[in-house]
Write a structure and sequence with these properties.
The structure is a single chain. It contains seven helices and nine strands, in the order E-H-E-H-E-H-E-E-H-E-E-H-E-H-H-E. The longest helix is centred in the middle third of the chain and has 11 residues. The radius of gyration is 16 Å and the shape is globular.
């Protein structure tokens, strides 16, 4: 039901934590699609043990940038829902997917959900916590001025992504914000008032 897209480039020291945070989810009806965007480090070696799980797919491509890597992953996706996770981030709530899928299944007018972020460094030192506006009308009021959907915490409907026209492959700058603005023309958005992501 859910396709989780992980673009990565030379993140061999971080990607295992991202993968573990997915595999520890209470919701398990997913596939993981790792798009290796031309890594020259040990990324493939770190990922290799996880490929025995049939739900984990791996594609290596020449370096093209994060946007094209995400597009490649979504083209491979079989799920009705898409979840994004960058390879140097990880989920901190093991019920994250369960909560988001349950919400989207019960609320068909919503196309996009996300949640709160804890920002910190690789040693676990926390800098900041952010909870973005919860309700659709509050998100819309400020969405033109700031991206109020955390990409690595986002889950959205694949059909809404396609209707919106998908990622703009001509840019790696605010490509997620651009997508979410377009998706807001397709349906409603919602932010859980819970922390889902360590960024």
């Amino acid at each position: 039901l859910v396709s989780i897209i992980i673009p990565t480039y030379n993140r061999c020291f971080f990607i295992e934590k991202a993968l573990k945070s997915i595999l520890e989810q209470t919701y398990q009806d997913f596939e993981i699609i790792i798009i290796d965007d031309g890594s020259t480090d040990n990324t493939k070696k770190v990922i290799a043990p996880y490929l025995i799980d049939s739900r984990v797919k791996y594609l290596y491509q020449e370096n093209q940038g994060v946007t094209k890597a995400r597009i490649s992953g979504i083209k491979m996706a079989k799920g009705e829902y898409i979840a994004l996770l960058d390879s140097d981030d990880f989920w901190i709530d093991n019920r994250k997917l369960e909560k988001q899928i349950e919400f989207l299944e019960k609320n068909p007018e919503y196309v996009l959900t996300s949640g709160g972020i804890i920002r910190g460094d690789e040693k676990g030192r926390e800098f900041m916590r952010t909870l973005n506006p919860e309700k659709d009308e509050d998100i819309r009021e400020a969405m033109l001025f700031s991206c109020l959907i955390a990409p690595s915490a986002a889950v959205f409907r694949k059909n809404a992504y396609e209707i919106a026209g998908g990622f703009d492959e001509s840019t790696d700058l605010s490509e997620d914000w651009d997508l979410f603005l377009k998706m807001g023309k397709v349906g409603k958005m919602y932010n859980f008032q819970e922390y889902f992501l360590y960024y």
